[in-house]
Structures are given as C-alpha cells and as structure tokens.
Amino acid sequence: MRNIVFLHPDLGIGGAERLVVDAAVGLQSLGHKVIIFTSHCDPKHCFDEARDGTLDVRVRGDSIFPPSVLGRFSILCAILRQLHLVLQVFLSGELSALDPEVFFLDQLSACVPLLRLLYSRRTRVLFYCHFPDKLLATRKSLVRRLYRIPFDWLEAWTTGLADALVVNSRFTASVFHEAFPGLRGRRPEVVYPCVDTKEVLGKKTVGDEKVEIADGGGFGGGDKKVALSINRFEKKKDVGLAIRAFAGLTEKEREEARLVVAGEFIVALAHSTCFSSGCGLTARAPWTDIRTTTEKGGYDPRVQENVVYHKELVSLADSLGLKSATTNNFITSLSVPADINVLFLLSIPTSLKSSLLSTAMLLVYTPSHEHFGIVPLEAMLSGTPVLAASNGGPLETILDGKTGWLRPPNAVQQWTAVMRDVIFERPAGELRAMAKAGREHVQREFSEQKMAERLDREVEKMFEAPRQRAFTGVDIGKFVLGVGISVGVAAWGIVRVWGG
C-alpha cells in the first residue's frame, strides 16, 4: 500500500472537489494512507468527508497570497498559493514525515516541477485533468490574450512533467491533445468520476416488479407526466433545446405533460470560473463564487448570465405558445396552475433534485460537448432514462436505446419524438426494463469502487513504467522564468487596471 498525498487548491463544494473526495475515500478504502493538503477548506462549505474525520484534511499555504487581487488575477494567485503550500509543508518537515510515494494533483499542475525537484527519486506524480484550463479561459481582447500566454505555456510544460496523466472522459482525452500538441507522445488514461451507488436517489425502486412509472407528483401539477431538465442557467447549456422539443408535442399531449426546467444546485459554477473565465483580467474570485453558488444554487440573481438567460428562456416559451411559470423553491412550485406547460425552478437543493429525478419520466440533458456530465448518471441510477446530445461525455455514459437515447442537438424533431415515445407511447414494461438497465449500468461502470480500482491501477502503473525524463537545471530555469514572467505580466495587468 502507498502513502498518497493529495494537493488541491480549494476543497469546497463542486464537481472537481467531489471527485477529489471520492478519489481519496476510494483509495483509502483500498488500504492506502491518504492525506489531503489544501489552501482552503471551510467546514461550513465542504463535503462531509472533509470535515467529519473520514479524511485527513490539512489547510496550509493560506497566509501570504490572497485568492485574488482586486477581485481578479485568480489563476496567478492560485499558482502562487499552490507553490506556497508545497514549500510550507516541505520546509516544516511535515511532508517528509509522511514519506509520500504518490502526489495526486488536479486543476493546477504548476507545482509539479517543484515536487520533482524536492522528491525526484522517491515519488511519482499523478495529474488528473478535468479539462485543459487554456480551453476554458476567455480571450476576447488583446490584453487577455497576452495575459494568458505565460500561463498557457506553464500549464502545458508542467502538465507534461507528471508521471501519469488521467482525464475524466475519452472526450476530454481527445481535446487534451488539441490543447497540448507538444504532449502528443503522452496518452492520458480515462478514470470516470463516480456517483454514490449505495443510495438510490429518491423513492423510486427499480429493477423489479415494484417499479411504478412516475406521474410527476407535485411538480407535474398532480397528474401531469414530467420531462425534466437540470442544468445551470447558462447559454452554453442549451436549455432552449428542451423547450423547443417540448413545444413540438401536440396541444393535447402538452395538456397531459409538463417540462420542468430546474437550476442545478451545485458549485460547478465556481469551479468553471475558477480556472476559466476567472483566469482573465476580469476574473471574479473563485472562492467567493463557491460561497455564493452554494447558497443560491444554479441561478444567482447577481450573475448577469443567469438572469439574462432565464429571461430568454421565458421569452422562447412564450414565442412557442407555451405557458410558463417561475418559482424559487419547492413550496411555491406546488401552487403553480395546472395549465402551466413549462415550470422554471431557479435553484434546487440536493433533496429536491432527488425527488425530481425519481418522479420524472425522462431527463432531457441538452448541453453539447459536455466534458462528462454527472446528472445523467444520477438519473439512470434513480431509474429515469436520459435523452442527451450525441456528443461529448454522454456518448460514454448513456447506452443508446438501452439506458436512454442520444440524438443530434440540431435535430429538434428527433428530441420531440423521443419525448412523445417515453411519455405517451412506450409500454410500461419496456420503461421498467430501461430503468433496471440504467441502474445496473451505473453501478457496474461508475461506482465508487470502480473509480477507486481504476485509480489504484494507474498508481501502480507509474511504478512499473520508467520514470519521466530526469529533472535538470534547465528545467529549473524554465520553471523560475515561467513563474517570473507570469508574475510580471500580472503585475502589468494590475497597474493597468488600477490606473483605469
């Protein structure tokens, strides 16, 4: 068994943080000794395992560099905080006392050269790439493009120094080589994120004769059948596709059904802004976003995109002759008139999300080129089939015709046809079979145990394969130069912003 040290920027609540916690718990369950170092972990805003003693979580490197400067430059601050964390635990002797054999990094690869320099012979470094940061960053102006140059170079170079590269899907693996053409000789391995398969979401029982096809409950106005969309209110999620597909049903069919559009209560927004739009000169501090999104859910009235896109969706429904209503919580949703075709639930807590999934007849998952996508797994685990775009992560999670359907995002009529089939035409026995197949598929391929086994296999492969090339004085020079240029560019940006 190995001594494994995790290094994570901010152990809050989000998709990346959920994966890190699951990975740590899974490897620990296999007998490895696991310690997590992070620059920030608020007990009020983290997953249970990070605060209840399940995991050994230690906060270090939080005393010199702030998460942002003037509410911006989050990527530079994140890099400096990570380097501070590593140096602090090394110089204090705390890290050496743990005798690390494996470093598990995600999101940020900046400290890989430092780890190679300090522990070049004894340890291996595994880097988990959720998605290349350089593909997430915005570059709408010349200033932003110039600002990103040293960070993009630093990301590519430091990522290539890791002993093992792991990604969350084959789709991410394909874009990895587009982002880092200099690493075409490296083939990232795929380790899928997992869902909690120990508990079936909601109250639906699947896989036996006790299955009852849900009628929508309160969300459907009592007797309406529900098609469900769960996503953040962001234009890239293409929720309008679900509305257009629902509008394609006949008037009589729409009277018997309802489309529920729910804002996903998750802090993935914070993760995406942390190293995407948050990487530019106008970045909002990602740690502020984490706190905000945890409280507000998938719709935050202070985020302009959320507000504007919700209004666009309401206008779209109106233009298609659909009556819509918007509610902020479950209680107010129960009083929505029966003739409402589209119900917007701005934000949903986990408990309501489970109920929605268990009562819906179909999950309509509209994002295109999604990196992975956890919601379809949660839906299949609850016994709800999924209709998703035939690209990106869903190609790897949904078995077309067996646990759901994959359709081109520009073929609205095909999406309407699937809705009609599931809600009105397909025999209950076939839906029961799909519910059973979906749950078994998730338990077989996306369980915590499966993820832990895959990670364990990647850890051992690092020690079986030859080490990545030796770390030289030239590399040290590159590292110092790269960080120095990044700091210089950021300093120029600060002066430019401060000066108006």
UniProtKB/TrEMBL annotation:
Annotated SUPFAM superfamilies: UDP-Glycosyltransferase/glycogen phosphorylase
Checking CDD domains in the record gives: GT4_ALG2-like
Entry's EC annotation: 2.4.1.132, 2.4.1.257
Per its UniProt record, what InterPro entries does this chain match? ALG2 (IPR027054), Glyco_trans_1 (IPR001296), Glyco_trans_4-like_N (IPR028098)
Top-level lineage group = Eukaryota
Q: What class of enzyme is it?
A: transferase
Keywords attached to this Swiss-Prot or TrEMBL record, sorted alphabetically, are:
Endoplasmic reticulum, Glycosyltransferase, Membrane, Transferase, Transmembrane, Transmembrane helix
UniProt pathway: Protein modification; protein glycosylation
Task: Name the GO cellular-component terms.
Answer: endoplasmic reticulum membrane
Positions of the Glycosyltransferase subfamily 4-like N-terminal domain: 13-198
Query: GO terms for molecular function, please?
Result: GDP-Man:Man(1)GlcNAc(2)-PP-Dol alpha-1,3-mannosyltransferase activity; GDP-Man:Man(2)GlcNAc(2)-PP-Dol alpha-1,6-mannosyltransferase activity
Query: What Pfam families does the annotation carry?
Result: Glyco_transf_4, Glycos_transf_1
- Reaction equations catalysed: an alpha-D-Man-(1->3)-beta-D-Man-(1->4)-beta-D-GlcNAc-(1->4)-alpha-D-GlcNAc-diphospho-di-trans,poly-cis-dolichol + GDP-alpha-D-mannose = an alpha-D-Man-(1->3)-[alpha-D-Man-(1->6)]-beta-D-Man-(1->4)-beta-D-GlcNAc-(1->4)-alpha-D-GlcNAc-diphospho-di-trans,poly-cis-dolichol + GDP + H(+); a beta-D-Man-(1->4)-beta-D-GlcNAc-(1->4)-alpha-D-GlcNAc-diphospho-di-trans,poly-cis-dolichol + GDP-alpha-D-mannose = an alpha-D-Man-(1->3)-beta-D-Man-(1->4)-beta-D-GlcNAc-(1->4)-alpha-D-GlcNAc-diphospho-di-trans,poly-cis-dolichol + GDP + H(+)
Against PANTHER family, the record matches this protein to: ALPHA-1,3/1,6-MANNOSYLTRANSFERASE ALG2 (PTHR45918), ALPHA-1,3_1,6-MANNOSYLTRANSFERASE ALG2 (PTHR45918:SF1)
Q: Per its database record, what is this protein's job? A: Mannosylates Man(2)GlcNAc(2)-dolichol diphosphate and Man(1)GlcNAc(2)-dolichol diphosphate to form Man(3)GlcNAc(2)-dolichol diphosphate.
Per the similarity annotation, which family is this?
A: Belongs to the glycosyltransferase group 1 family.
What is the name of this protein? Alpha-1,3/1,6-mannosyltransferase ALG2
